[in-house]
Design brief:
alpha/beta; three-stranded parallel β-sheet; two-stranded antiparallel ribbon; 7 helices; 43% helix; 13% strand; elongated; F-box_dom; F-box-like_dom_sf; F-box domain-containing protein
Length: 135
């Protein structure tokens, strides 16, 4: 055992799930989706796809949008694949329109919006922001 190496792929699915549950869903999806067939199946599990926080938070409770690189990958590759599994989003207001206008989220029932200016909130709740959505 002194020189024994165990790789991630050697672990049973149950152990991988225990490990992955300790991480943020966004990190798991960004890092492991489309890596290989086995990991793809695991990360498509509803435990990782139903509740997404697509923003970062700091220790002083400030919220920032994801970096453009991460947000681009989510909008172009990840969200289109899992859109039907998403039930709840936490979004930072500057990326809200881009993410929500990307596709239809048929099972979305909850939305947390952060850093939302009062004028944007007014436009959102009076239908001015999403008036161009065609479902």
């Amino acid at each position: 055992m002194k020189y024994s190496f165990i790789e991630l792929n050697d672990l049973p699915n149950e152990i991988l799930m225990i490990i992955l549950k300790k991480l943020h869903n966004v990190e798991i999806l960004y890092s492991l989706i489309d890596v290989n067939k086995r990991l793809n199946t695991i990360v498509h599990d509803p435990i990782f796809t139903s509740y997404l926080t697509l923003m970062t938070s700091s220790s002083n409770c400030l919220f920032d949008r994801l970096t453009d690189t991460i947000l681009d990958r989510f909008c172009l590759q990840i969200l289109p694949k899992i859109h039907h599994k998403i039930e709840f989003f936490n979004l930072e207001s500057s990326s809200m329109e881009r993410i929500l206008l990307l596709t239809n989220y048929p099972n979305l029932y909850g939305l947390g919006l952060y850093n939302l200016a009062s004028e944007t909130a007014r436009d959102l709740f009076t239908g001015k922001i999403f008036a161009s959505i065609n479902y």
